[in-house]
Amino acid sequence: MQQLGNALNNQPVAEEEEALDLIGYWRVIQRRKWGILGLAAFLTLLVTVVVFMMTPIYSSTVTILVEQTKAKMLSIDEVYSGVSSDQSHYQTQVEMLQSNALMEAVVDKLNLAANPVFNPSTEHSFLAGMGVGASKMSDQDLRKHLADKLSKMVQVEGSKKSQLIKVSVSSPDRQLAATIANTIADVYIDLDLEARYKMTQKATGWMNVRLISLKANLDKSEHALQQYREEHNIISSTTLELGGAASQLGANLGNLAQARLARAQAQANLDQVKKARGREESLPMIQRNTLVMGLMGAVTERERMVATLSNRYGNDHPKLIQAQADLNKAKEDLRLQVADVVSGLEREYELARTNENILSGAVNEARQTIQGSNRKEFELLGLERDVKTNRELYDMFMGQLKGTSAVSDLQNVVARIVDPALASDVPVKPKKQMVVSLAFVLSLMLGVAVAFLLEHLDSSVRSTEDAERKIGLPLLAAVPKIELAAGQVAGLHYRDAPKSLFSEGIKTIRTGILLSGIDHPKKTLVVTSSVPGEGKSTVAINLALAHAQTKRVLLIDADMRRPSIAKVLGLDNTHPGLSMLALGIDKLDSCVYKIEGSNLDVLTAGSIPPNPLELILSEKFKELLGGLTEKYDTIIIDSPPVQLVSDAVVLGSMATGVVFVVKADATPFQMARRGIRSLQRGGASIYGIVLNQSNFKNEEYYGSYGKYNYHAYYGEDADKEAAKA
Can you give the residue ranges of every domain in the chain? Predict the structure, then answer.
């Protein structure tokens, strides 16, 4: 039925678990909210102080339009100026606006060395790095330093879809930022005009020198051409004729190809004849001979005649002898004719090879004649080409030099200002509101991260949900910390304050134990914990009192190393107890205490034996435990902690079940897990865990179900009334 119910409610349960996880995260934040808010407030205040102490920076921007076409000073201006109207030209202008030469020119024009913003005497870090004082800096070093500082204040932004460039300058002085931006644009245009003017002057002077060299080269090439014509009696290039050499070479090449094909065919036929030695008549080129074909037919006819006569007459018959003689003669004639055809093929091959050699020699001779003529023509054409190239280059330079006008070339500028820079009233940085808001958000996130880190590092069990999630066992109940009045005993709190919140937790444990072992009406329970000080003895005593209301219950103090039940209940430590009873020295009646106001019997540890574990492992102890089970309905054993000795593991294997006590906010869940695994490896059945000394006033205790008014319903008043009683 339970499995069926889980199957029917699978989806709601999954949704509930997801909700529980989210609530768990929220609970971690809620528990550490003051720490998170404190960290966020501190960091935000720190950032706020730093931001308001920062010097405001103003920015001004000038927009420049780069012209797509530039005036050409020369036809070869791209060689010398590198100026073009394509995208590379635009990108070049963007880079030039960030050049050191431009920045140094702006420094000189605005006399930034006298400006307080750029005064190097206030820059102790720079001067210390230079190793000199302001008075010892050279003019060049000072100029370079100011240009570098200015470059860091300038930002050039180009557009991918237009020819506009934006130059932005950031400075603590808003008026200075606008002045520098406009000056950069003006100096950029002026420097370009000056550079182009200097290039024009330089190009003109260079061309004058170059023309002299070009004229000398032209004269030299014309003289060499005329001398070559005179040496070879050439009137013009058209007089160079190849005569019949070219046509003869073409005819010989065609004949040579046919001769090579004929020789290759003759060689192939001859090779086949050599391979078919003794059976040449079977080759196709032999059979194509008319005489061979006739003789082969005659041989076939003679063979048929011999075969016919052989069937009709005997071997000595004159007709058969005559037919056989005719057949032999026909075969001999065929052999002679085949030999004659083979000789013809050999003669044909030799003739074809001789013809090929003759034609090959004729072709080589014609080629040598043509190559000689070609060399003369090539030399002549080269000389004529040199003359033509030198004349064209000379004419071009002469035309450009005559047509160059420095004034017309400098009419166009590289760029113009579209929008001049204006002084800004609003600083671009720091953006105080945004920085403070971002600092607050980030500090909150940091606080939450630290809270989750601390939660992850916290190994204690804080709530009921922690107990089940971290330890992995069902929770029987959570028992609150007891606030005792004067004269009250923690071990008898269930008896003295039956309506208190503590007593309700003990009752919940009792109910869980009853439901966990319905098939075992008589139970032997072991109450243990990981380490001392977790309150297992108090839980064991009060749990025994709760069971004693309806059953015969025996409480046994099996911690014979450090017994505590007698001390908690105020009993005599020297009274005979478990050790004497297990050894058979005393009887049960003389060892058992009766607790006033209840039906509970208590068997203290008694005298401490030298080796308690051997006593527990003895057969006498097992027989004693079996006899007590027959007499009592429920036996509750207070055992030593699991992490210290192995007594609890042995007792757990003998008991019906084990109740594992964990102290809230103290016991590491890893330690509790190790203790539970030790019990399980020993064969113990764990009913569940008890979260002892819980703080019910803490909202975290209630897990993902919220904080209900549990105290108002049960508890704080009932605890106070019990304390007064």
Answer: 2-54+431-457, 58-206+409-419, 245-404, 464-724
Structure tokens that stand for 209 in this block: 């020198």
Interatomic CA distance for residues 132 and 599, integer angstroms: 98
User: Are the C-beta atoms of residues 58 and 171 closer than 8 Å to each other?
Assistant: yes
Identity at 101, one-letter amino acid code: A
Model-level pTM? 0.47
Over residues 240-255, the pLDDT tens digits come to 445 555 666 677 677 7
pLDDT tens sequence across 615-635: 888 888 888 888 888 889 899
List for the chain the helix, strand, coil content (%; round to 5): 65, 10, 25
Q: What string of H, E and C letters represents the secondary structure of 208-259?
A: HHHHHHHHHHHHHHHHHHHHHHHHCCCCCHHHCCCCCHHHHHHHHHHHHHHH
Q: Does domain 58-206+409-419 have CATH number 3.30.1890?
A: yes
The answer regarding whether domain 464-724 maps to CATH 3.40.50.300 reads yes
Q: Rounded distance, CA 542 to CA 436, Å?
A: 58
d(CA 575, CA 163): 107
Q: Do domains 58-206+409-419 and 464-724 have the same CATH topology?
A: no
pLDDT at 529 > cutoff 80: yes
Please give the angle made by the CA atoms of 523, 525 and 529, to the nearest 5 degrees.
Answer: 165
Q: Does 430 sit behind a cis peptide bond, omega within 30 degrees of 0 on the bond before it?
A: yes
Buried/exposed code over 678-705 (b: 16+ C-beta within 10 A; e: otherwise): bbeebebbbbbbbbbbbebeeebbbbbe
Phi and psi angles of residue 102, each rounded to the nearest 5 degrees, phi first: -65, -45
How does DSSP classify residue 32? T
Contact indicator for 327, 302 with CB cutoff of 8 Å:
yes
Quick check: helix, strand or coil at residue 689? strand
HSE (CB half, 13 Å, CA atoms) of 243? 8
